[in-house]
Predict the 3D structure of the following.
Amino acid sequence: MSSAADRGGFSTRTLGRTGVELTELGFGGAHLGELFETLGEDTAQATLAAAWAAGVRYFDTAPWYGHGLSEHRTGHFLRQRPRGEFVVSTKVGRVYRAPRDPATYATAPWLGGLPFELRFDYTRDGVLRSFEDSLQRLSLNRVDLLVIHDLDAGYHGDETGVAARFEELDAGGGFAALEELRAQGVIAGIGAGINVTGMIRRFLERFDIDFFLVAMPYTLLDQDALETELPACAGRDVGVVIGAPFASGILVTGEGGNARYGYESAPPRVRERVKRLASLCAQHGVALPAAALRFPLGHPSVASVIPGAVSPGQVAQNVAAFRSAIAPRFWTALRDAGLIRPDAPTP
């Protein structure tokens, strides 16, 4: 819920039961790992500086983003700021090492990134190794939040693969290690990254999760998580961060050209829906990105939205969109047009 506290110009919300205050607008660090385009170090640092100057004080990153590059860049910036003035989250589930054949190693699917190769590991040893490695890449001696990353069929092939990774996390001691870090006060909250519906309930049935970082299933385009998963979060005071408020791009670019949805070329049905959304936005004088950033915060469990950026200009655009005033009648019009679910809470 909204907090009276304020960091650097943005209101904050408490993340579930963690006690951690997040700025409603955060910074997602995936694109600092050079997913779709490379960027120089000066540009990366200027992008982070622009977010800080605008008042953003929550920064999310992960070892996966550019095979360590995003953590290096994020940490280089944050280690020069007062530690009490920002919140940082990173993730566990992948451990990195030098490639067996450096001469032929490729960083795919990242366009750029660093030349290290990963193995998935959700066991106790894997979680602790990932955590310690992240601290060193970040040049920080603590992080605020740790997220179990990408434990779903998209990364582990099928149900057999997912079940095996859940066993690593459970019987293999990975989650127990996270609980120990939380009990010791080393971290303030344990999260899980969610790419598809169905996984929130599955985590909650097995583990004492504090929050979820939801990448796709709850945006202006998709509200399937309202069926059972977000109600389950609300019932347990489990917080939510929205990690892909632009649905990986199409809610910024619109439906034309190389529009991306779910990190791939957007299919026709999605393009058509975005076209209708953009038309209604234009009728009400609302920018599509502004609607996309503000919509998820209508849900009481959502504490922050964390769009990415690859330039100071993109940061400025995100900030301006977030701060745009949107009249209540716009949300009513969306509902009346069938463009959001009837039960979708709005700002």
Residues 1-8 have pLDDT under 50 and may be disordered. The radius of gyration is 19 Å. The first helix runs from residue 41 to 54.
